[in-house]
Specification:
Layout: H1 4-15, E1 18-19, H2 20-27, H3 31-43, E2 47-52, E3 55-60, H4 62-77, H5 85-99
Antiparallel strand pairs: 1-3, 2-3
């Protein structure tokens, strides 16, 4: 992931859950810009939004990161051997999810 704002968001949420206003201050961006990046990260399933009463808390979705790490390790162990088309397509979906693409 090469977007510095999304990297900072993930780093901030690694430490703890936060509401959008607090997260915007922590990351150093305007709330409207943060909203765009949070939506991209939610689409990629890297961040989840949890409603607690009248507040929405944002959390890092560590399970998708774990899945991606396991996939990368298995790819390295296989020595980059080409897989059937459906496996390549699944890998591309994972990469796009991590990069925050639709």
């Amino acid at each position: 992931m090469d977007d510095p704002v999304r990297q900072r968001v993930l780093e901030a949420l690694r430490a703890r859950t936060m509401e959008a206003g607090e997260l915007a201050r922590e990351v150093g961006v305007q709330p409207s810009r943060l909203s765009y990046h949070l939506n991209r990260l939610k689409e990629a399933e890297l961040v989840t939004a949890v409603r607690r009463g009248n507040h929405i808390q944002y959390e890092l979705n560590a399970s998708i990161l774990d899945e991606t790490i396991m996939w990368l390790v298995s790819l390295r162990e296989r020595g980059g051997v080409r897989q059937p088309a459906e496996c390549r397509a699944e890998r591309m979906r994972m990469v796009r999810r991590i990069q925050g693409e639709s």
